[in-house]
Amino acid sequence: MSEKKENSLGVAKKTLKYFLPIAWKLHKGYFFLGIAKTALNAVYPFISILILPLIIQELLGERDLFKMLLYVVIIVAGQGIINLATPLLNIQMEKYDERFQNYFTCEMSRRIMELDFQLTENKDALDQAEKARTGMSWYSGGVHGICTDVFNCVSEIIRLAGSVLLIALNAPFLFVITLTLTALNVLRQNKLNKIELESYQNLSKTNRIFSYLGWELHNFRYAKDIRLYGAKDMMVEKVKYYNDKQTDEWARKANATLPFEMLGNVFSAARDIATYFYLGITVITGGMTIPIFTQMLSVGGTFHNSTQSLMDNIQQLVKNTSYAYEYVKFMNYPAAIEKGDLHVKNQPHTIEFKNVSFTYPNTDVKVLDGVSITLEQGEHLSVVGLNGAGKTTFVKLLCRLYDPTDGEILLDGINIKKYDYEEYMQLFSPVFQDFKLFSFTLKENIALDSDCENSEIERLAESVGLKDKLSSLEKGAETVLFRDFDENGVEPSGGEQQKIAIARALFKKSPVVILDEPTAALDPIAEYDIYRQFDSLVGGKTAIYISHRLSSCKFCDKVAVFNDGRVAEYGTHDQLVEIKDGLYAKMFAAQAKYYN
Ligand code: ADP
To answer: Do residues 369 and 565 make contact, with C-beta atoms less than 8 angstroms apart?
Structure first.
């Protein structure tokens, strides 16, 4: 995504517009608590500002003990109630913080799972996801962090309005002193924010690599490879390297901010000197009484603190919203592929590749070059060829994981880009070579969240050759796979995992089944069983079957031989073995030797 510099107030506005309506809809109670806290906060300093001059007045004049006691009680009780209520309100509001975080984390996970597949290999999109994750949690404090800034701004504005009124009535020159020093402080704070934001941007990539390494090191599924290939030292070295990078960046940030932190104290001393000087002279020259002098001292402090605090809170709000905006940007990350809204008709489907070429993003090699193939409903196509010939890419394009660079893919004569994406995806049940099973139950791995009877799982298990395995499991279909979360979980073998993945594809009941090297991890007997049952397994569905083992081709209607991204040969098994010096005939002869 191109990085166009956006105006920070515009960013703040967009971020608030994104989060506040959602947060209000989720938990209105949070906002009522916030309003109560804002009001109490705003009132707090005025209790002593208004009452203290009255006590001094009494001390200098009538000295009525009852009146003085009453004033003291008002101050103590007023401030005491607010002091007690504020932490109680804070605790209640913090409880909502957790709920907001959970909600937005879930929404982000959902978005990650819906992200166009192509973007999962895109560095910019991955960085954006990392910025969104850290920006929304650590850096901005999430919705609670942002709303706290808003509530603080409002209570400071109310305090300012009260202070302005009192100062305007008694000591207008105080404005000049306070505003000058506040302006200087704003510039100082601006600089500090810039340094922090820059450091956050610098750390985004390092944080991403760091959490990747943390995850890889701790996930026991990698334990074998790490041990057997002695990868431990390399992993530890890498963690250390990125840890050092983080530490260096933090040190750079601390050094850069130090002078500006110190300047803050200098500004504060200058303001005190100027205020005392001005008010002192005014009293000496008879322009102000002692009670008003004390009131102006404290209201001057409140005016200064509130101006400063308002500026800080606005800057904090701008900073926090700019972090949280990374989340908004990620949630609205532009699509990588075109999507239409045409409904997929409920009819037998014809799929046609029309002169399709493809180059992976950020590479310059044509992986597919002018591929044209037509598949009628129910037809079984075997796709064969050497490693890297483009077979998997061919099915990835069909499944819309990428869009062709040239040419078009048609479903029932219409470009697949024109169809509603979700509906189109429902047409396919692929089993890719690098399929993944979840650390959930066997049933959830096959049926996901669809309703499904255990008998259906048993039927599918039988058809893919998992009947014995299933009956050996104490909890049957409810057995948890892997031991990440259940010490009684089972670790299926590679072949068993592949069979479960095939069962999942068959459960989906899509009209097109795609098996990419489905037998690679199966033993020869299981492989033979899958071949033998292939027709009954996929029924009358269209099937694309990628395999190195050419014996599979005998079970298919057509064979496409891929070579260097092109369809080098196309026909039935019997036709292709007859082509003298043909690629297929050679490959088949070479393999037949071993099978015989
Ligand atoms: P096959 O399935 O026939 O073994 P593939 O379709 O997987 O071949 O790969 C074809 C070529 O595309 C290979 O050279 C491979 O390295 C390259 N390739 C595959 N996936 C990607 C990717 N995500 N990015 C860049 N190149 C890729």
So the answer is: yes
Q: Which of 362, 368, 383, 392 to mutate to test the pocket of ligand 1 (most atoms within 8 A of CB)?
A: 392
**311 alpha carbon – ligand 1 mean position (Å):** 54
So what's the pLDDT on residue 2?
43
Is the beta carbon of 362 within 6 A of some atom in ligand 1?
no
Residue 219, pLDDT score: 65
Q: Is 390 in the pocket of ligand 1 (CB under 6 A)?
A: yes
Within 343-403, where are the H helices?
391-398
Pocket residue to mutate for ligand 1, from 371, 384, 393, 514, most atoms within 8 A of Cβ: 393
- Regarding the domain with residue range 351-435+510-595, which homologous superfamily does it belong to in the CATH classification? P-loop containing nucleotide triphosphate hydrolases (3.40.50.300)
DSSP state of 343: P
Nearest atom in ligand 1 to 386's CA: 3
Domain extents in the chain: 8-331, 351-435+510-595, 438-491
Burial class (CB in 10 A: 0-12, 13-18, 19+), 180: middle
Per-residue pLDDT tens digits for 162-179 = 999 999 898 888 888 888
pLDDT 10s digits, 467-503: 888 889 888 889 999 888 888 889 898 888 888 998 9
pLDDT classification of 1: cutoffs 50, 70, 90: very low
Window from 265-274, 458-467, 531-540, 543-552 with minimum mean pLDDT: 531-540
Within 10 Å of residue 583's Cβ, how many Cβ atoms?
18
Q: Does any ligand 1 atom lie closer than 6 A to the CB of residue 367?
A: yes
| CATH number of the domain located at residue range(s) 8-331 in this protein | 1.20.1560.10
Helix orientation angle between 8-26 and 65-114, rounded to the nearest 10 degrees: 90
Asked whether residue 43 carries a pLDDT value surpassing 60, the answer given is yes
Atom number, ligand 1, closest to the C-alpha of residue 363: 25
Q: How far is the CA of 391 from the centre of ligand 1 (A)?
A: 8
Per the CB < 8 A criterion, the answer to whether 292 and 170 are in contact is yes
Tell me, yes or no, if the pTM score tops 0.90.
no
